[in-house]
Amino acid sequence: MAELSTIARPYAEALFATAKEDQQGLASWSELVNQLAAVASLEDVREALTDPRLNNAQRTELFCGLIKLALSEKARSFIGLLVNNDRILLLPQIAEQFDALKNQLEGSALAEITSAFALDEAQVQELVTGLEKKFGLKLKPAVTVDPALIGGVRVVVGDQVLDTSVQAQLARMRDTLAA
């Protein structure tokens, strides 16, 4: 079976092309797609959307009714397309790829920063400034804390990983000694 991200890609690219041409702008579409993904991720919603007693029109109306934002005709059409193709549950992957396309267009990327200790805003900003020079992109930080790192930080930007944690250094030392 094809990987979910492979199936989601054409939908994300088509939605992105539509959003670029729309006067609402990419930011509003991004917000909408992320809300659609959040709703589609809920277990109760997933169960309701796979209920065989509902037809596609009922599934579309049910899903549209759960969205807090006002839906344009294009957005309703997109939801209907996903329901008709049995792809509505792919919305989290579609949203992820849509945001990646948006970031690529803007010359930015998400920086997933994992630290052994909580970082204050000044520390995060200093780290992001250095990382932006290294990666040559405008970075949007998402910071989490993982005490298992012992010390240091682990940064993931796209498919690149910069791991300066004590845990990683200990693992490298163990591998060197074992060789």
TrEMBL record:
Pfam families attached to this UniProt entry: OSCP
Q: Which InterPro entries match?
A: ATP_synth_OSCP/delta_N_sf (IPR026015), ATPase_OSCP/dsu (IPR000711)
List, in alphabetical order, the Gene Ontology terms for molecular function in this entry: proton-transporting ATP synthase activity, rotational mechanism
Aminoacyl-tRNA synthetase as UniProt keyword: no
Instruction: List the GO cellular component terms.
Output: plasma membrane; proton-transporting ATP synthase complex
Supply the Gene3D superfamilies for this chain: N-terminal domain of the delta subunit of the F1F0-ATP synthase
Q: What is its main location?
A: membrane
Q: How does it sit in the membrane?
A: Peripheral membrane protein
The text of the family note is: Belongs to the ATPase delta chain family.
PANTHER family xref list: ATP SYNTHASE DELTA CHAIN
What NCBIfam families does the record point to?
Answer: ATP_synt_delta (TIGR01145), PRK05758.2-2 (NF004402)
Q: What does this chain do? A: F(1)F(0) ATP synthase produces ATP from ADP in the presence of a proton or sodium gradient. F-type ATPases consist of two structural domains, F(1) containing the extramembraneous catalytic core and F(0) containing the membrane proton channel, linked together by a central stalk and a peripheral stalk. During catalysis, ATP synthesis in the catalytic domain of F(1) is coupled via a rotary mechanism of the central stalk subunits to proton translocation.
Q: What is this protein called?
A: ATP synthase subunit delta
